[in-house]
Structure formats: C-alpha cells, structure tokens
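User: Fold this; tokens only.

Assistant: Input:
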Amino acid sequence: MDGSFALTNGTAETGASSARIGRVVASNGSQAIIILEGGDQGSGSGGLQIGALVKIPTAQTVVYALVNGLAIPMPKSLAEAELKMVEIELLGECVSGPGGRQGPFQRGVSIAPGLSDSVYSASAEDMIRVYARPGIATVKIGSIHQEPSLPALISVNDLLGKHFAVLGTTGAGKSCAVALMLRAILSRHPEGHVLLLDLHNEYSPVFGDRAEILTPETLELPYWLLTFEELVEVIIGPRIPEREPDVAILGESVLAAKRMLGEQKDRSLTVDTPVPYRIGDLVKIIDEAAGRLERANDSAPYLRLKNRLAKLQNDRRYGFMFPGLSVKDNMAAILSRLFRIPVRGKPVTIVDLSSVPSEVLNVVVSVICRMTFDFSLWSEGSLPVLLVCEEAHRYVPSDPTQGFEPTKKVLSRIAKEGRKYGVSLGVVSQRPSELSMSILSQCNTIFALRMSSQKDQDFVRGAMAESALGLLDFLPSLRNAEAIAVGEGVAVPVRILFDELPSQNQPNSRTVAFSSAWSGDYSSSEFVAEVVERWRRQRR
C-alpha cells in the first residue's frame, strides 16, 4: 500500500462536508481552546471525543488539530448557559491553493489560528488527507479508532530509519503487534533483513517458512568472537577486586593464544580482535605460566581459569560457544546466517534465547548486538538491518547498577548512531519504567498499548510528544490490540486497532488457560518421566 486514496488531485475544497462546531477563544501557538456552538456537535455519532480531528481554516492554510481535553466550567448562576470548552493540540496544516483547494498535509503550523476563527469537524476526506500520507511508502497495520473504515498506516522508512518502541503490560498484545508490523513490512519488502531476539520462544510460528530459527543447538557464537570484556564475564564472572589477577592472566594468555596460529603470527592483534584461537593453546599457556611460579600458593588464579574452561567445554549448554577441539574461521558464514545474506526466501532470523544459560544470556545478547552494529559499520550501511529486542528492559535497564555494561553500551550506540549506518532498533518491553530513558528517547515512533501501572504511564508520557498527551489518558482503558501511536512512523498521533493475525501465525504468548488444563487428569507417570527427561537433556 502506497498511502494514496481517492482524492481529486490530492485536494478538496475547504470546509466541504464539514460542520462548523465552534470558534477559537484562546491560542498560544501550539495549542488552542475553542467554545462549542449549537449543542453537542463533532465527529461521529457520539459527539466530539478525545483524539478527534478538527480543522481551522486561516487566510492561507487549513490547520488540523487533535482534541485533547473537554470541559464544561461551572456556571456562576443557574440562569447562565453552560460553556462547552475544548482543548486542542495543533498538528499541521495544508496550504490553500487557487479556489480554496488544499495542498498535501504537512506537520507543523506556519500560521496559528486567531481569535474567533471558525472550527470545523473533520470530514472523511480530511481524515484521508491527514492519516493516509500519500506519496510515502506505507503499510497497513490496522484501522483508525475514530474512523474504523480508514486504515492505520505506518511509514516504513520513518519507522525503521529512526527506531521504534512497542510498550505495554503483559497480555495487551505487544508480541502480536510486533509480529503484525514485521509481517506487513516484509510482505512489501521480502528481501529485508530482520534479526529478532526472542527470549521466550514466542515468535517461531509467526513467519512460517520465511524465518530462520536459531536455538542453542543450531546457533554458532564461538568464544573467539567475544571481546575480552565479554569473555571475562563468561569465564570469570562479574569483575571484582579479588578476581583482577585472574583477569590479567586471562588477557595475556588470550593474546598469546591468538598469536600461536601460523597465519596470525605477524599480524597486529589485540585481545578484542575477532580471530580464531585454540582453547587447547590457551590452557597450555596458562599451565606454562603457572609452572614458572616460585610459590605454589600463587597458582590459585591459574587453577580457577583452567577449571572454569574445562567446565565450559564439558557443559553441552555452552556448545554454541565452546564447540569442541577443532577451530575454524567461519566468521563470514556466521554473519551470513544471522543477517540472512543472501535472503533466499527467509528475511527473518529468530534467535531463540529461551534455553540459553541465564549466566551468559547478557553476553550472548551483547555479542549479537555488537556484531550487528559492527557489520553495518564496516559494510558502510549498504545492507540495512532491523534488530528487534524483546524484553529490552533486561538489557538496558534504567538502574545504572543493573545489567551488563557492554550490552548497554552497544545498544546505546545503536540507538544514537545506528541510523547513520543502516541499523534500525525495535525496542519491546512490558516494563517501560524499568527501561533506560536514553534508549527510549531515541525511538522516534512509539506504540503504547494498555498500561495499568501509573509509574509506566508517567514514564511513557515523559517520552512522548505534547500532542499525544490527551490520548495517553486512555492507556489504562485500551482494549487488547489497541495502541496509541505517536512519532515519525505515523502521520499524526493516533489511536489504532491492530489487525488480527491468522491463528496459525500468532505468537506463543497466550496465557495458559487453567480451566481447560485442569479439566483432565494426568494419571500416567510417563508424563512426569518425559518432563524429567527434557529437563535433564538441557543440563547434559
């Protein structure tokens, strides 16, 4: 869908099919107050509502505004007539041409409404002009709440080029909204490149055979791809003063191991250079260093490193990171698979992190995010990639003492610089108040679904534009699959109802139905035995 609708040459006469509803009694540049006239008038059968679109013709333009407040001040006496007052937020304008015809809608207002200027309800043509965004590459994701016959459209370039966030409480429909948007975009752009970090194995059915699904059994992130800071987190754990000797020994040993491979002896290497080296060489170097010690008591850090490396190699859960004795330089193949190059009918890579050991989850996310940015940087943005982070508050928390620092650094860099190099960031979170505001502030399009927490609501208000504040009052009462959308990806702040996904393509995010599950009796002991086997299989 290209966003074009049936308008005569993209224009319509000022005031056509619109009713005069009142006049301007106050204006401050970005906002205005109007007094309704002639009773309860407005858009739709229910009268003027929060979020309704109105227009104000001026000498050279037609200004469009969003209703964000309704009030009836208490009259001074019973004989005094009630005043019905409406607060509106100015959104943009259409410049009037010959014969009073309007040009295309554009954000921003060059001529503010004056006192006593007439205010009209928005006609169907007005809504098409404002919401449809003719001439811009768009895709349909739902319908407009105020006018269900109008499609809700998102601009692909503005949405992806400037990052986006999908926020809302559990069960409000975040995963379905993300799935719907990605499916809509990829249906128009099947050669796209999307990398989705899935913490709870929700998205495997969403794209069918158009997605490459990577689990710890099929994922390849060999240890030699890790930066030294990431490697320390895996082998030693959080850096504390008591473990600094271990860190120093590991750094020297890793650099020496990298230089032991023949083709790398003459290269200028650092501990962060992503080149292969053998774990066997690393252990040998640690052993030799320990053998040169004068006192046996000094060998504790060396023994801790050797024992940890042996444990990691023998734990099947870490097989994607410590694959075995052999080592090969397959970095190009790993990148090709992650970023779908070539696409070959599968534009999406879903990295299922549900069974990744929790102690290295942040490291895995850090490696993937860093490689996404570095690949786009060194490919000079020639192949844009969308990185979607579910449960983003776990990686970039608002509390500076929480989270893994390298993960926070790379996601912050993507948020601030990614658009220059073709990296788009999609942030998804059910706890927006626990998400770093510096990350959210870089998301220029926000889809806010239902939120019951006042703390979350206040946090989202702080990140959104003034023009959406009236709509945000609906956050606690939004239905499932409804959202307040604001930012560059939509024409104006709008309340939308997402389309419904086909049942076979819905994410695995539904709450377990206790009444159905408890209607039968698992009398066979084989059920428990199967559960135990799956449980142990992950720990072998």
